[in-house]
Amino acid sequence: MWWLLRTMCFVHVIGNIFCLLKPKLRNPEANMNISEIISHWNYKSEVYEVVTDDGYILLLYRIPMGKNEPRNSSTKPVVYLQHGLTLSASAWLINPPSSSLGFLLADAHFDVWLGNVRGNNYARKHVYLDPNSTAFWNFSFDEQIKFDIPATIDFIVNKTGQKQIYYVGHSQGTLLAYGALATNPQLAQKIKANLALGPVVTTKYLSGAFRTIAYIDPTVIKKVFGEKDIMTSPDGNRVLQFVCHRETMGTVCNNLLAVLFGYNPKNLNESRIDVYAGHIPSGTSVRNILHFSQGIRTGLFQTYNWGSDSLNMQHYNQFTPPIYKVENMKVQTVIWSGGQDILANPIDVKNLVAKTYNLVYHKKISDYNHLDFIIGKDAAEKVYNDLIAFIKKDQSG
Fold first, then answer.
1. Partner of 382 at 20 to 30 A CA spacing, among 20, 31, 195, 307?
2. Among 5-9, 77-81, 194-198, whose mean pLDDT is lowest?
3. Out of 148, 229, 274, 341, which one is annotated catalytic?
4. Does residue 248 have a pLDDT over 90?
5. Given 171, 282, 293, 337, which residue is catalytic?
6. Is 171 a catalytic residue?
7. How many angstroms separate the CA atoms of 300 and 33, rounded?
8. Has 370 been annotated as catalytic?
């Protein structure tokens, strides 16, 4: 169980050695920010600051139209994209427009919004807390469910004037939807459909390298990484870029991804690994990682365990962390899942499907791993075209 911890430490330490090295990368988007990526492909974009009720400032990006679409005042369906754990809104844009969901939705004449949750590189500001303070990082996905998702959706609804929007989530982005829409009925009324890609909600059967995190004592993780941020430094990204941008190492890095996310090496565009390494990971809090590992150990989708009966009683007025009741999420839902996905394990997905009250469609893709849903070479063919067709049909109906 210790090899993953040692590897994370190794990347963290040697990042400082490589931070001054600038390998010649294949793709210019490798070190671009989100606005620059959108402009690079000749799309128009807008960026807004969303302030949550507890003071976090989240950058929210918008692609209001397709590349060749004339500006007009006609009302279009609104689609909100929510990234997964340690990622950012850039995850929807790191392939060329023909295979990135953010661009494909814009070209399909949708109003596209790309959100960020607290703790990633696009959401590290606060009204009064210092991002370098422990207090700033005192959150897990509980706060993202309670504050970030409602603030972002309310902002989009108010800005567009739409009563309902479409929610697309990947990985932990699906967990945030299930949690927020199950516990906030008013928010659920603003969602026309919940579209889940590789849903990671319960993780009892999650396998692979990430499972080892669950067996490392939380005090050890805090001792090594502190109680602030993790995977937010660009140094680690530079290490990955330095190694993986070389053609001879592309297959090695591809195999590493297979260990972490599931096996489907033929579906990774190795010529763009420098872009992927430049944007993944994008950071989160140590507590969020601890909360994620808690779900692996218990197999439950529940609030953060504070580590003692007295602390849980102080926070929840009960000795054990409350369970998020997935069955209370009544929004119509579509799920795409992968047979080789070791994070959204097929057994966990099957259990989620059984508890999803208003499931209208579930597509299983036998050879898909966890990352295929956002960077797979054939994601447009196997996932995005279906997703776009569903929204258009739902609009016409």
1. 31
2. 5-9
3. 341
4. no
5. 171
6. yes
7. 36
8. yes
